[in-house]
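Let's practice the habit of predicting before peeking. Look at the sequence and jot down your guess about where helices and strands might fall. Then scroll down.
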Amino acid sequence: MHKTMEFLPFQRLLKKHFIVCCVFLSYFFGYVKLQEEQKLLVLTVATEDTDGFKRFMRSAKTYGINVEVLGMDEEWKGGNIRLYSGGGHKVNLLKAAMDKYYDDKNLIIMFVDSYDVIFMAGPDEIIKKFNKSKAKVLFSAEGFCWPDASLAEKYPKVEKGKRFLNSGACPDFSYTGFLGYASYVNEIITSSSLKDEEDDQLFYTKIYLADDLRKKWSIKLDHKAEIFQNLNGAVGDVELRFSDTDSYLHNTAYATNPLVVHGNGASKVALNSLGNYLAKSWVPKKGCISCFEDTIKLETFKVKAKPHVIVGIFVEHPTPFFKEFLERILLLDYPKERMDLFIHCGTEYHKKDLDSFLVNHQHKYNKVTYLKLENDYKEWHARNLGLEECTKTNCDYFFAIDSNAQLTNPDALRLLIEQNRRIIAPLLVRPNRLWSNFWGSLSTDGFYARSVDYVDIVKKKRKGVWNVPYINHAYLIHGSLLRDTENYPSYIHGLFDPDMAFCKNLRDKGIFMYISNLHDFGHLINSETFDTSHLHNDLYEIYTNQVDWEHRYIHENYSKVLDQTHEVAMPCPDVYWFPVVTPIFCKHLIDTMEEFGQWSDGSNKDPRLAGGYENVPTRDIHMNQVGFEQHWLYFLREYIRPMQEKIFIGYTHDPPKALMNFVVRYRPDEQPSLRPHHDSSTYTINIALNRPKIDYEGGGCRFIRYNCSVTDLRLGWTLMHPGRLTHYHEGLKVTNGTRYIMISFVDP
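Done guessing? Here is the structure:
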């Protein structure tokens, strides 16, 4: 009996702990049950099916959030909130909707705008964080006191976080975001009347600032962005992060991961950029998920059923490689009977090329509208007329292309149509530069700013379809937008240039512009420094537009010969022979020299040289006389040096030097041949600029020591041979016609 009594205190303690555990478990399971029973319903107001609304609904669908849309296709009565405060219509729409929900004790109502909001989590996580706040109604918060700044001092002080009930920094972006129990939300919005045109922000602000009402309904602000992240004034607080399956925002100021983001005030461009990733739109492991949603496939369409496209060609300034531009328009792989051309010529420089193009090809297209230079249309006017033409003909798409845009992908138009966006541009970049046809962000004054992902997009390290604030040079506009009188785009906005005006107007209307880098579409020409003072101006573009220069002027087989496995032809000992330039290069160089016309007289006296004496004179024109010397030295480095290093192994000189670079002309009545000589070079190149037995007879080069001649010269091919000592040679006699060769004494 005595021993049993010794255990009583322990038994009592055990019993006490057991009771506490039971209470805790009861509370815990009751809480879990409450969580399971709670439901989330999102109510939003949207009177138009905008791009922002579609993004909002996609994010809700991604996370399984139930949304009820209020006011769709109804007349908006909340005033012009782009110009002044208003929005009471939203509150009244919410009041009407709450009639069927206010008595549901397990229902949590979230009310947000839809045009500039993105969800980043599902209902369970939102409910969990809401319960953690211990509020009955939780409003989002930010750092601006709108619409009445004088009320700022009436707000309760906060130790950390945003102090004010959520609002925009200016009236054109009024917004209210909150969530709470249905009964409490209903009591708040029915506590007083509000006219449609009155300000909803002020309505909620006055309720929150009334101490008795704030306590009565247990209203709190989401100071640290646990749920709501307003971006206005806080873009620097957030950073984009990725998990294996999703992308999300982290608020670095408060170490929180908000669940709903709103691009209020001046932060809409930032929201659009973040929206490229959020709601499982793009993640590193899977890439662009949203790019393949709601697309179409044109291969399922019969030719007559394919969209009717007007291709708007705008030639506003002299542009290098314009003939290639027109050829690539012609090569677009799309039925021409479903294509119209709308052309504006704003420069005399390309008038003949355009006229010739239309004479040869306009019959292939359904219709051609040509605004000629003599009509004197301003650029903005011509571009607006192009859009009007699409509207009048009820076209399905308007594809605007500037002469700067080289669309090297014949499938470019089809690929853009299949993406099924209202406005989409193909990514075009100046080769080996970061200059492109889009901006990733805007400066505070509305001009270019580099977004954090700009370089990755330009270099295609991240592939996708990107919502951006500015596009130019080539873009596809859906015809439905041109039939939307409320959102009709225009190239006029104050004193802005047409491209700036066009994009500014679209941004103001909330219309998204996209850039796609899912495919290689082409590139941009740089026409900023284009010098039109020469006979063949494109010939001088080797620095500025090297890709296009190569396409026109470098022989199609040059790269094959450069391959280390390819055996270079050797017609004579240590004389190598390979293709390097095209026939058009040869013609343009000959034309350039003949237009200049100041051929030397072939005597030993030569004032062009240091000392004024030429030991082995020819009838020639030096490259520096036609302003092509530095261009030619660049040519030697880019296209001759790699071949020299392959052929003469062990000799490297980068960059190669050449003081003598000249075109020689041989004629029977001038100088038909050249006496035996050594060249003042380490090695020499000799490019045939025209054709033996067609343009001239006779001619060629004889290497005397080896008694070996090369006479059957090939257009655009070069001979490369050592200069000094070993390769004593002579120019063989031309008996008829004119022979042209390009000579460089390299590394004298």
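How did you do? The CA atoms of residues 265 and 583 lie 59 Å apart.
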